[in-house]
C-alpha cells in the first residue's frame, strides 16, 4: 500500500515538475515579448531597414470591362421591307459605308408627289404676284389727274372726255377680293410644299442605313425580307476609335476618385499595364444590398488596335502620391491613430519603440513627417 502511495507521489511530483516547466516556458515567451516591446534584447532575429527618402503612392483597384465610348443605334426613316444587309455582328465598318436598305418604291413616289405639289404652289404664287402688280399699276393711274389740252382743240376735248369716262369705270372696280392677301396665302402654300419635299427626300434617304462613324457592328435586328418599322433600331454600331473601361469602385474608394486622375489598365492578353485616365465618376452610387458602388470611366492614353468589346480589365487608379519624403515600409508602423504611429527603432543590438508622426499611408510605404531621420534603422515587420 505504501509502495503504491510512493509511486503516486512520484508521479504527482513528475507532473507537477512538468507543469512548472511548461509554465516557465510560457512565461519566458511572454516575458520575451514584453521585454522586447519594452526595448530589451530581441528574443528572435529581426529585419531592420533604413529610413530613406523616396516616393509614397496609394492606389485603389478593382475590375472592369472594355466598352466603346460611342454607341449608335441606327434605324430606317420609313416602314418597309428589308432588301439588303451588308454587315453582321462583329463586322468592322468605315464611316459612310452602307449597312442595310429597305424597298424605296413608296418613298420615291412620295418625293415625286411632293415636288409636283411644290410646282403647283409656286405657279399659284406667281399668278398672285402678277395680279398684285396689275392692281398697283391701276391704283397709280387712278391717283394721277388727267393732263390739260390746248384751248380750241375740239377733237382733243372729245378724246379726253372718253378717256375720263373709261378711267372712272376702271377705278371703281375693286382691286383685291375681300377674302385676304392672295400673295401671303400663296407664299404659305409654297413654304408648306417645300417642307413636304424636304421630308420626302429625307425619308427616301432613310431607306438606307449608313454608318455615321467607323466602328464595329454589335447587332443586326433582322434579315432580308423582314418588315421593319420606322424608327426602330435595326443596326447597333459601336465606335471603336474611342474605347474605354467601365469599372465600379466601392464607396470607401470612390470618395478619393476624381476626373483627371491617372491609372493603369491591365488586360489579360497584354503583358504590360496600359496608361489610362479617369474621365467620369458617377455622382450617384448603386447598391446591391450590402455595398454601394460608384461607376467610373477610364480612357486609354493609347488604345491597342485589338481591343475586344466586353473583355475584362484590372484597373488601378492613383489617389495619393508624395515625392521625395521620408518613408518606411508600411508594415513597420503600428498603432496608427490619426497622424500618430509607433515604430521599433533598432540600433544593431536592441529595439525600442518610438512615437512618430505620419503622412500619406501608401500601399508599400508610409510617409514619416516627424520622429525619425534619414539612415536610422527600424524593424521592418513586428
Concise description?
The chain is built from five helices and 19 strands.
According to CATH, the fold-level topology of the largest domain is: Elongation Factor Tu (Ef-tu), domain 3
Distance between the termini: 57 Å
Q: How large is the radius of gyration? A: 47 Å
CATH superfamily of the largest domain: Efflux pump adaptor protein, beta barrel domain
Low-confidence segments: 1-36
Beta-strand content estimate: 35-45%
* Class by SSE composition: alpha+beta
CATH architecture of the largest domain: Beta Barrel
CATH class of the largest domain: Mainly Beta
Mean pLDDT across all residues, rounded?
Answer: 83
Shape estimate: elongated
Summarize the biggest pleated sheet: 6 strands, antiparallel, barrel
Order the strands across the largest sheet as they lie in space: 2-9-13-11-10-14
Integer tally of domains? 3
Helix content: 25-40%
Order of helices and strands: HEEEEEHHHEEEEHEEEEEEEEEE
Individual helix count: 5
The count of β-strands is 19
Protein name: HlyD family secretion protein
InterPro entries: MdtA-like_BSH, MdtA-like_C, RND_pump_MFP
Main location: other
Keywords: Membrane, Transmembrane, Transmembrane helix, Transport
Describe the structure.
- By secondary structure, this protein is an alpha+beta fold.
- Helix content is 32%, strand content 37%.
- It folds into three domains: 149 residues, Elongation Factor Tu (Ef-tu), domain 3 (Beta Barrel), CATH 2.40.30; 67 residues, RNA polymerase II/Efflux pump adaptor protein, barrel-sandwich hybrid domain (OB fold (Dihydrolipoamide Acetyltransferase, E2P)), CATH 2.40.50.100; 57 residues.
- Strand 15 and strand 16 form a beta hairpin.
- The longest helix has 39 residues.
- It is elongated, with a radius of gyration of 47 Å.
- The protein starts with a helix and ends with a strand.
- The N terminus is likely disordered.
Amino acid at each position: 500500500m505504501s509502495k503504491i502511495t510512493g509511486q503516486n507521489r512520484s508521479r504527482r511530483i513528475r507532473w507537477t515538475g512538468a507543469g512548472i516547466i511548461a509554465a516557465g516556458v510560457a512565461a519566458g515567451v511572454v516575458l520575451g515579448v514584453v521585454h522586447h516591446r519594452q526595448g530589451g534584447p530581441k528574443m528572435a532575429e529581426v529585419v531592420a531597414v533604413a529610413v530613406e527618402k523616396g516616393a509614397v503612392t496609394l492606389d485603389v483597384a478593382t475590375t472592369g470591362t472594355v466598352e466603346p465610348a460611342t454607341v449608335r443605334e441606327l434605324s430606317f426613316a420609313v416602314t418597309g421591307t428589308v432588301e439588303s444587309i451588308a454587315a453582321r455582328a462583329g463586322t468592322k465598318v468605315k464611316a459612310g459605308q452602307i449597312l442595310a436598305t429597305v424597298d424605296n418604291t413608296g418613298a420615291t413616289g412620295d418625293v415625286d408627289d411632293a415636288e409636283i405639289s411644290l410646282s403647283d404652289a409656286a405657279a399659284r404664287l406667281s399668278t398672285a404676284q402678277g395680279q398684285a402688280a396689275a392692281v398697283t399699276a391701276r391704283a397709280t393711274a387712278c391717283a394721277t389727274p388727267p393732263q390739260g389740252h390746248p384751248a380750241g382743240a375740239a377733237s382733243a376735248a372729245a378724246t379726253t372726255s372718253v378717256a375720263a369716262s373709261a378711267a372712272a369705270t376702271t377705278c371703281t372696280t375693286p382691286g383685291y377680293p375681300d377674302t385676304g392677301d392672295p400673295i401671303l396665302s400663296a407664299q404659305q402654300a409654297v413654304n408648306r410644299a417645300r417642307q413636304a419635299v424636304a421630308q420626302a427626300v429625307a425619308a427616301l434617304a432613310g431607306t438606307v442605313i449608313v454608318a455615321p462613324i467607323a466602328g464595329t457592328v454589335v447587332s443586326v435586328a433582322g434579315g432580308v425580307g423582314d418588315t421593319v418599322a420606322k424608327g426602330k433600331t435595326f443596326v447597333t454600331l459601336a465606335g471603336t476609335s474611342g474605347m474605354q473601361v467601365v469599372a465600379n469602385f466601392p464607396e470607401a474608394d470612390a470618395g478619393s476618385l476624381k476626373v483627371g486622375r491617372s491609372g493603369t489598365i491591365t488586360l489579360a492578353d497584354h503583358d504590360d499595364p496600359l496608361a489610362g485616365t479617369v474621365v467620369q465618376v458617377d455622382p450617384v452610387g448603386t447598391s446591391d444590398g450590402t455595398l454601394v458602388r460608384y461607376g467610373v470611366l477610364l480612357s486609354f492614353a493609347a488604345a491597342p488596335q485589338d481591343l475586344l468589346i466586353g473583355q475584362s480589365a484590372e484597373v488601378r487608379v492613383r489617389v495619393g502620391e508624395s515625392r521625395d519624403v521620408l518613408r518606411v515600409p508600411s508594415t513597420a508602423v503600428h498603432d496608427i491613430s490619426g497622424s500618430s504611429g509607433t515604430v521599433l527603432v533598432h540600433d544593431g543590438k536592441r529595439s525600442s519603440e518610438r512615437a512618430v508622426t505620419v503622412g500619406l499611408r501608401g500601399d508599400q510605404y508610409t510617409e514619416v513627417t516627424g520622429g525619425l531621420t534619414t539612415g536610422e534603422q527600424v524593424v521592418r515587420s513586428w
